[in-house]
Input
Amino acid sequence: MKFLTEYRDAALVKQLLDQISKSVTQTWTIMEVCGGQTHSLVKNGLLSMLPENVQMIHGPGCPVCVTPLNLIDKAIHLAEKSNVILCSFGDMLRVPGSKKSLLQIKAEGADVRILYSPLEAVDLAIKNPEKEVIFFAVGFETTAPANALSVLHAYEKQVGNFSILTSHVLVPPAMEAVMNDPNSNIKAFLAAGHVCTIMGIDEYYPLVNKYKIPIVVTGFEPVDLLQGILMCVQQLEKGEYKLENQYSRVVKSQGNLRARNAIDKVFKIENREWRGIGNIPHSGYEIKEKYHAHNANLKFNIKIDKVSECKDCIAGLVLKGIKKPQQCSQFGTNCTPETPLGAPMVSSEGACAAYYHFHQANNDLVSIS
Output
């Protein structure tokens, strides 16, 4: 792999912006799927550098942001039990449930811990046999291999007091849901490079052919994103639609076969509820029957009713790419990273948080009709 600084080269960025400006003759709306891509576009000021007729739409690509309220409530319900140690990644702790967040109940005395890997949670369970250790497993296909390995590790070592509460969501079905939305005006996609690093790119060919839409897999640095946007624009201007891999230095056609094998061993594909979007068919991972002893949802027989989102929050419209964060009346006033109304203001990859932290400096407020 080349040095990272090569993908932040100012001269190359200017060259790509010039090529985009020379190539585009009409207005095109392009959705970047991943929140990491959104974060980079906003942080690096790229939105204001693009020609006005290239409009970037921010997609639902933040797994923390699309975790349903009732699933967060389930995690809180479990964490409040005296014999439970509940673990997850840092961002997840601050996402508001219907009444509280995991961080709030941690402050109230619940044993809630931030870990960097679910395998740490297995070791924690081994060291604390009197406790039930639950890992709140959130993520796209990117984090699924590590969560699968934690289940395999616990199963092989017969660690009966370890389980995971699964909230894995899959990217291609979400892209299809966006395309099926009657309000969608997306003409091309930037697909998430880290997801494709694991899963490969074959899943995107049916979407390209069904919707006759360009899809370009990109990385997350300024040069990656601008090169991907240029590739989309060039296809659109020619009336072409195909799958291209800008991120070929990392993404291979078949992905990471060992990682995919771990996923296939532990998980099966099922329907999944996406916060702010609704139920998307075949869009999530659930634990296979062989490993049900490590499925927290079944092990503890949790039944939490679905609850309504905050009526003042437009997170669902932001996640669908219909609205931009600053079009919310609560943005930056009642809704801030310290007092979030919705998950996109909490997660480091949430569109609302990215705009809140970086749009003032970069003048990246881009209006859409």
Residues 315-355 form one domain. The chain has 16 helices and eleven strands. Confidence is low (pLDDT under 50) at residues 361-369.
